[in-house]
Design a protein that fits this description.
Length: 273
């Protein structure tokens, strides 16, 4: 899932049951939007967070008319180290989006939490995103930089690793999507580059598990007419080499020993409100 917080809001006007003279109430200064989804595999920056198993995800965002927003997003987890506790990822985020010419500039911060899990797994990551649209085609470029924190440290089984190590992480990405005219289909693509530690943070929460690597996605979403539902399919992959994976095995493999960063087709069913 390459756009965690892309949440749409659907509005329904029941005009047929309203009197002809009824007036719509003016919109308030705060808009509430959200989504829920069922995915066949939770992939974060190309790497499975559920041992290639299914996940239930959901989020909600409050947006002020000034451009300020805040919200939360959550997903179940499995494998990828031992998260412990509820095996849940809970993200809190806030930011500010403003028009910039014909584009939108979005600056914010995400706090990644693993409730009731082991100590020192939570970390903060500021981000900057610039998005724009040209007809039916939408594009976005983003930079997320997490400063040195213990949750991002190199705790792998290498001579350089040491308990309590603090490392940072840089992630640069681009997204593009476009609606196919006269169809409910939207095509999408993503390319990301991570530059982080070469090991594994405490209990598998490191966002760049093997140093420098690329992740990418190509896929399509199909909106189901007359409903808030969307079906999605995407091919996800990374260029993480097997020799890099070996540094952090067995955490970097599922129960049958196969990699959690190899290519995979991911399916999703989501609903927005």
């Amino acid at each position: 899932m390459f756009m965690k917080y892309q949440i749409a809001c659907a509005a329904f006007a029941l005009l047929s049951s309203a009197p002809a003279f009824a007036q719509e109430e003016p919109a308030g200064p705060v808009t509430v939007s959200g989504s829920v989804a069922l995915v066949s595999d939770y992939r974060f920056r190309g790497v499975s967070q559920t041992d290639k198993g299914m996940a239930v995800q959901g989020g909600i965002t409050l947006t002020h008319e000034s451009g300020a927003y805040a919200g939360t997003w959550a997903s179940n987890l499995s494998g990828w180290g031992t998260f412990g506790g509820s095996n849940l990822e809970l993200d809190l985020f806030a930011g500010y989006a403003v028009p910039l010419g014909g584009a939108t500039l979005d600056v914010g911060l995400t706090w990644y939490m693993y409730p009731s899990g082991a100590d020192k797994t939570d970390f903060a990551e500021p981000y900057v995103k610039l998005s724009s649209a040209l007809g039916p085609v939408k594009g976005l470029i983003g930079v997320a930089y997490a400063p040195k924190q213990q949750a991002l440290g190199n705790w792998s089984n290498t001579p350089q690793s040491r308990i309590g190590d603090k490392e940072d992480n840089l992630y640069i990405w681009g997204d593009v999507s476009g609606a196919v005219p006269n169809t409910p289909v939207t095509l999408k693509a993503h390319l990301g580059w991570s530059n982080g530690n070469p090991g594994l943070g405490p209990n598998g929460t490191s966002v760049a598990p093997t140093g420098k690597y690329l992740d990418w996605l190509v896929g399509a979403d199909v909106a189901i007419p007359g409903t808030p539902l969307t079906l999605g399919v995407a091919y996800v992959d990374t260029d993480i080499a097997r020799v890099e994976e070996n540094y952090i095995r067995p955490n970097f493999s599922d129960s049958d020993g196969s990699s959690i960063a190899r290519s995979r087709v991911v399916f999703s069913l989501s609903a927005a409100f």
